[in-house]
Design brief:
This protein is mainly α. Helices cover 69% and strands 0% of the residues.
């Protein structure tokens, strides 16, 4: 059980690190959709217009493409909120921020995440 949990955690970290590019560099390249997708896949709440404007300013860009950001975010959330991933997300120790609650399987996602998170916590205490 512990080996499986550690293997899942390592795999999640490897995939996460490989996929995450700095949001500022993406904005400099005009890749607002990629910024949104990255946020969604990581289970983060959607950025506010103020947050997007501040990101653009830090990146030295004048405009924000909200439509592209939202399209990417929705794609990312759809992948993150797949119930088949929920247990592994919880098992990795990642917090769930309620981003799937509005979806038809939102409650099921939360229950599977909770089950995985409880297994993470109980395994954490056996070390």
């Amino acid at each position: 059980m512990v080996k499986k949990m550690l293997a899942s955690l390592v795999m999640l970290l490897m995939v996460g690190c490989a996929a995450v590019q700095n949001a500022e560099s993406l904005v400099k390249e005009g890749k607002w959709q990629a910024v949104g997708e990255q946020d969604g896949v990581r289970g983060l709440p959607s950025r506010s217009m103020t947050d997007l404007e501040e990101l653009a300013q830090r990146a030295g860009v004048d405009n924000v493409d909200v439509n592209e950001y939202e399209a990417g975010y929705n794609e990312g959330i759809d992948r993150y909120c797949d119930v088949g991933n929920a247990y592994d997300i919880g098992l990795s120790g990642m917090q769930y921020l309620g981003v799937c609650s509005y979806l038809p399987d939102g409650l099921r996602f939360q229950m599977e995440w909770q089950r995985g998170f409880e297994d993470f916590q109980s395994a954490d205490q056996t070390f």
